[in-house]
Amino acid sequence: MKGSRILALVLALIMVMTLVPAMAEDEPVKISVAGYMFGPIDNEKDVITPLIEQQLKEKHGINVDIEVVYIEQTNYAEIINTRLAPGKNNTAPDVFLAQSATALNTYYDQGVIKTWDEEFFKANAPHVYEFIMNGAAYGDLAPYVDQWKAASMVNGEMCVIPSFKPDGSMPYKTLIYRGDWLEKLGVTEENLPKTVDDFVALMTRFAKEDPDNNGQDDTYGMSVTAMKALFGAYGLGEEGLAGNGTGIFVERDGKLVSSDVADEAKQVIELLAKMYADGLIDPEFVAGKESVAGSYWAVSQGFVNGLYGVSANASIDHYRLKGITGPDDAGGRCANEYWLVNGEDSTFVYGPWPAGPNGDYGWVTGYAVAVSESAVYNINMSDEKLALIFQIMDAFATDDELYMTAFAGIEGEHYTKNEDGTISRLMTNEELNAVGVWGCRSLYGADRAFSQLAYDMAFYKDPSIANRLNWFKKDQYNSYLQDAVSVTLPSADLFSELNLLRDETWVAMIRGDKKLDEWDDYVQAWLEAGGQTLTDEANEWYQSQK
Amino acid sequence: MTQKKMTVGKAIIYLLLTLLSASIVLAFWHLLNLSFSPSYIATKGGLLLYPKDATIDNYARVIGNRYIWLGYKNTIIRTVVGTVLQLFFTAMGAYVLSKRFFPHRTFWTLFIVFTMFFSGGLIPTYLLVKDLGLLNTYASMILPGFISAYNMVIMRNYFQSLPEEIEESCLIDGAGRFRIFLQIVLPLSKPILATVALWLVVGHWNSWFDVLIYIADDTKFTLQIVLRRIIITGSKEILDTSAAANAAEMETVVSSEGLKAACIFVTTLPILCAYPFVQKFFVKGIMIGSLKG
Amino acid sequence: MTGLEMRAPRRENAFMRWLHGFVGYKKHLALTLMFLPVIVYFFIFKYIPMGGIVIAFKNYKIRQGIFGSAWCGLDNFTKAFNTPTFARSVRNTLVISGLKLLFGFPAPIILALMLNEVTHVRFKKTVQTITYLPHFLSWVVLAGMFQQLLSPNNGAVNALLRQLFGMKESIYFLGSNQYFRGTLIVTDIWKNVGWSSILYLATISGIDPALYEAATVDGASRWQCTRYITIPSLVSTIVIMLILSIGSIMDAGFDQVFNLYNSAVYQTGDIIDTYVYRYGLGDMKYSLATAVGLFKNVIAFVLVVGTNLITRKISGDGIW
Questions:
Q1: Alpha-carbon distance C34 to nearest alpha carbon in chain A (angstroms)
Q2: Parent domain of A223
Q3: What is the rounded distance in angstroms from the CA atom of residue C274 to the CA atom of residue C271?
Q4: Is the dihedral angle over the CA atoms A189, A191, A195, A200 positive or is it negative?
Q5: Quick check: B91 pLDDT over 90?
Q6: Tens of pLDDT along A95-139?
Q7: pLDDT single digits (tens) A30-40
């Protein structure tokens, strides 16, 4: 007892002694940050981080020593979770990402991240607070303010800075058809299917009428990603089958029901089973020739290489035509892959979403306010340090020069400004990361700073976005957004088991290994395995919002 | 004699071995061709019998990475140091356990075998490594798996098959156990030492997860980590429109399958080249024949 | 005389013998000193972290630490056993590794014996070197390759089957529950047979050539030499390997399955390790993952102890 008291005293003394000179010489506060990066930072080439430190010190009086930590994206959670394991004395970076709502829930539950209240937020990051609460840029965010507040909290405590992803801010997936196949079959852009029936008819022609002209029966209509168009046509949002994602809760008669077990889902599966039996769907749709492991995720290998006629694996920006963003624009990444395989003069066509019996159409996406890939703060830091980090976030929101340095680097060296205020980068993502661009990304809070400039830059003035928005003014091309549940459900961990059950059952039903008569058994099993709990939780939240 | 029957039997053996080898050679040949091919070739499917639209982009990307040579250095350090030390201590322990008169031998064997089945898992091991101050050191790549119970049991088994008589005659001559172990037992055990050494080398060469967990200092990253990065950074990007909108990124569309294949050849080539030198230890009659003959 | 009286002295004997053993450490001081580093190593790096197993019985929270977290008895176990996919993953694990044991275990022995019969040195060395190669490829890489080669659409294997055997329908090796396990076994053998044969070849290379010479002089055929000289000298290695294999029967090969399976074959392919993976580090459900791991390892350990007992009774050989 006595010994431990002396020990504590000694420890306290040591702490004081280490702190005193720090204050005397005004040592910079060390902050380590691990955000989303395309590659490791090269300490010898890193010019951006010192520049940011300098600007923070000179213009904002914030004296920090920022250490950018690179963590591989594929094992991000494993590495962070291991480094967090020692608890209070953990070795994880000060600022890191909660990769999903479930991860956020877990971090909160495990007590490894800092929490704060609205007062603290307002005091240390007043501009960000204003920006968000006022609905910010163009008032576009106004409808989402309440959602943002809800999403920033777990169990009533603020612990994350979510990002806004309002309609039009993210390039959602787009239906892309093969131009050469359409030409062979005599389908013009105006005649592209606008209803489910027409869509299925076109799939049949893709599969049966030898659209690639090689005299062999080696083509299919579609694979897994285009199935989402059918779910959308029935008003459902489904991330299953391909991505092992979670079904989105949709409103039916004033209540939320998961797309995984909605009545319409049965109709979609029935339709898919029929299409499969008719040979319109690639039997390998489960193993995926769309997002092939190890290759760029947005490239549907089956589509690009002439196995399917349609795919919805990529955004319109991935299939951006040449010269859209400027005279040097080489086009989107998938577009390039497509041209490389099919020839420079080959074409692809953006398609409208087919509408279902109730006139629904599109790709039902996630939520307008997202916590995934948002910054959280290590429990092992002091409140003073957290305050400092919030002050840095505020600096990024108010100081455009600082933001541009972190976001794009040095003008002339890393980027050039276009006439319309947009920028063109002069290096690859990995090279930019090596010199320090994006290294401080998580210090903004979300994946981009809460400032007018950031919103202008990234959302509305970006040429590829502007181009997309114009395109999507056409009827039935735009996806629509579902804002059903924007909080992390307390039992979100049950989803992994449910997703497994759903994928397995649906795949078996589509392939005819399981009869559709067993649908009710499946729903029953789904509810019992935790689906009921989650549905109740979602509805409870939904009612509380009314 | 049964000359004719023998040849039929032999013919079947030769045929089976040839088929097995052929399937492997074809697979590797396919991979080699893939490593010289652009991305879209891989999805066409089928067997690649020659490179189509050959390119050296994949190799250029692998070899051009600034970390690759550093990775080579670190991998060689951990492999050499790790293998030598591990082999020595494993053999020493195995030698002691091979002695039937060693007290509580069964208990000690169980003590070691038990660890093959029960472990605290990743987190407690991480905490230990951290508390010992080994994070970010080469030791953290070697110590957590320093002695494998599996290798020790295999070695002990081999030592038990060695004739006891030689050791006894040496004991009479006044040599200590440690000297006997060094000067008599180890030289007699070249085949098993070579086998286990090969296992250890390959293990060190290919391991990456421990580096991922224990090492944060990128000057200590090993080859496998660097190669994983090359493959992974080329494959996963989030939807960041502003980032994707740059022209420079579009210059080359690198083949991921091809890149993987190129990585395989760059990483495994040294180990494949080293293999024949180890193989010579397996030649027949190294020990018992020369003793009894 | 009662049984008790009969047994008492014997037990005392065993105890005395155990006690007497400690004298042995001094008697064989050199050996004791040589063994000391091994004991210290295992104690520090293997036994100390084993304390972490207690979290299987706790509701582990990082912030509270291993000792601070609340006990929850067998809750983690019942929670695991109650998920519908758990029992299936146990069954799949046993079937897959059982099949691997049945076919995969003898394969390298047969390969080693066949190689031993090859008299053409260069051919032998070539085959050896080639068959080791697949071991160097990770399953991530091999999975990509097999998915291509085994594809029902344009895979080389299906093309070959169609041409050679006139098969009409393509087989979806990796996507049908009928073929998935078979595919796992065959690809596993293909990858590891050469590498696993190294140990047997090393043992064979230790056999006294004089034995073969004497046998040949006596008129033994090659088969008889194999049957009466080679195989018997491999027995102790085979026994050890068999015991170790049975100990790993709860490991059906995570890397392989994880990289090859998909939702169409969960029915036959989802194993304990993939189950644990879903809950483990990624989800931070440390307690649940540890509980399942413990369940798995206890079974494996019991199996090894059992096999060891049986083999020792039969052949006199065992790990301990």
A1: 35
A2: 175-364+489-544
A3: 5
A4: negative
A5: yes
A6: 999 887 778 888 988 889 999 999 999 999 999 998 888 876 566
A7: 999 998 887 78
C25, C47, C138 member nearest B103 (Cβ): C25
Q: How is residue A139 written in tokens?
A: 């008032």
CA distance A40 to chain C (A): 22
User: Over chain A, what is the mean pLDDT?
Assistant: 82
Longest dimension (CA), chain A: 91
Which chain B residues are Cβ-neighbours of C134 within 8 angstroms?
Answer: 24, 27
Q: What is the pLDDT of residues A294-329, one digit of tens each?
A: 566 778 888 988 889 999 888 777 888 887 766 667
Contacts of residue A122, Cβ cutoff 8 Å, sequence gap at least 6: A129
Same domain, A454 and A333: no
Q: Tell me what pLDDT residue B200 has.
A: 92
A351 beta partners = A175
Whether B145 and B151 have beta carbons less than 8 Å apart is answered as no
Sequence-distant (≥ 6) Cβ neighbours of residue A89 within 8 angstroms: A380
- Which residues between 48 and 87 in chain B have a beta carbon less than 8 angstroms from any beta carbon of chain A? 66-67
Whether C208 and B292 lie within 8 Å, measured CB to CB: yes
Question: Which CATH number is C74-315 given?
Answer: 1.10.3720.10
Counted residue by residue, chain A has a size of 546
> Which percentage of chain B shows pLDDT scores above 70?
80
Question: Which residues of B are less than 8 Å from A82 in CB distance?
Answer: 122-123, 126, 213
Interface of A with C in 495-514 (CB under 8 A): 496-497, 500-501, 503-504, 507-508, 511, 513
The H or E element spanning position A349 is: strand A348-351
A135 and A99 part of one domain: yes
Where a domain ends, among A461, A479, A499?
A461
Q: How far is B29 from chain C (nearest CA, A)?
A: 12
Indicate if A387 and A358 belong to the same structural domain: no
Q: Neighbours of A (≥3 Cβ pairs closer than 8 A)?
A: B, C
| Residue B263 in tokens | 């990585």
Mean pLDDT, residues C291-298 taken together:
89
8 Å CB contact of A304 and B40: yes
**Contact residues, chain A, for B246 at CB < 8 Å:** 424-426, 428-429
Which of helix, strand or coil describes residue B174?
coil
Q: Residue A168's pLDDT is what? A: 45
Number of domains within chain A: 2
Q: Which of the listed residues A446, A461, A476 is the one where a domain comes to its end? A: A461
In a shared domain, residues A55 and A159: yes
Could you tell me if A387 and A512 lie in one domain? Answer: no
Residue ranges in chain A modelled with pLDDT below 50: 1-2, 19-24, 168-169, 481
CB B61 within 8 A of CB B251: no
> pLDDT by residue (tens digit) across B206-241?
888 889 889 888 788 898 888 777 665 544 433 333
Mean pLDDT (whole number) for C69-87: 87
**ipTM entry:** 0.83
Contacts of C263 in chain A (CB under 8 A): 241, 244, 286, 500, 503-504, 507
Residue among C110, C309, C319 with most chain B CBs within 10 A, to mutate: C319
Q: Is the pLDDT of residue C13 over 70?
A: yes
Which H or E element spans position A446?
A: none
Q: What is the DSSP string of A40-79?
A: ---TTT--HHHHHHHHHHHHH---EEEEE----STTHHHH
* Chosen from B235, B255, B263, B264 to mutate, greatest number of chain A CBs within 10 A: B235
Same domain, A158 and A193: no
* Residue A480 is assigned to a structural domain of this protein: no
C317 compared with B190, residue with greater pLDDT: B190
A164 & A215 share domain:
no
Mutation target to probe the A interface, by most A beta carbons within 10 A, among B227, B240, B251 is B240
Chains in contact with B, where contact means 3 or more Cβ–Cβ distances below 8 Å, are: A, C
Are residues A133 and A250 part of one domain? no
Please give the domain boundaries of chain B with CATH numbers for all domains. 66-233 (1.10.3720.10)
**Is A8 part of a structural domain of the chain?**
no
For residue A526, the domain's CATH number is: 3.40.190.10
Nearest CA in chain C to A113: C63
